[in-house]
Design a protein that fits this description.
The protein is mainly α and 156 residues long. It contains 7 helices and no strands. Helix 2 crosses helix 4.
Length: 156
């Protein structure tokens, strides 16, 4: 398969022409939540475990200090509407623009944890993580370490 064909098949392709951002502005917390939400939606459905886990993960982060439970749920509900309307590629690429490189790496780590929280890695989730790794600029070594660590973490 040619390099161009592989690029065309990426869920989160960065190929030309560059698509316009779907968000005019997002807080860092909202952008982070968007990446996490895309991760749990990557297999096409939300499990109860994934839904509980995303809420717990976000509510414990410094980014979400001062957010009530209701506010976090509202952010996730609003982001879900954008995800449904615009699709994963535009959603993730747009959200990424509002995150620092450090938070992009953290978003990848949290996404791996969320995807693996139900103990099953579906093909769509695996593809999503590979594409997300590329979009967020996470090295193969770092991605492999994170995935290995999260597989161990989520065994029990």
């Amino acid at each position: 398969m040619s390099e161009q064909q592989q690029s065309d098949e990426n869920l989160l392709s960065q190929g030309e022409p560059k698509k316009p951002l779907i968000f005019n502005s997002l807080s860092r917390a909202e952008a982070f939540a968007a990446i996490a939400l895309a991760a749990i939606a990557s297999d096409g459905y939300f499990t109860n475990t994934e839904t509980r886990t995303i809420f717990l993960v976000l509510s414990r982060m410094k980014l979400f200090e001062g957010y009530s439970e209701l506010q976090i749920k509202s952010v996730l509900d609003n982001l879900l509407q954008f995800l449904k309307q615009h699709g994963t590629e535009a959603f993730v690429n747009s959200a990424k623009e509002f995150l620092s490189p450090e938070l992009q790496a953290t978003a990848f780590a949290v996404s791996v944890d969320l995807v693996l929280s139900d103990g099953v890695l579906h093909k769509k989730e695996e593809k999503f993580l590979a594409d997300l790794q590329h979009v967020l600029g996470v090295s193969d070594e770092t991605a492999d370490q994170l995935i290995h660590a999260m597989l161990i973490k989520n065994r029990g």
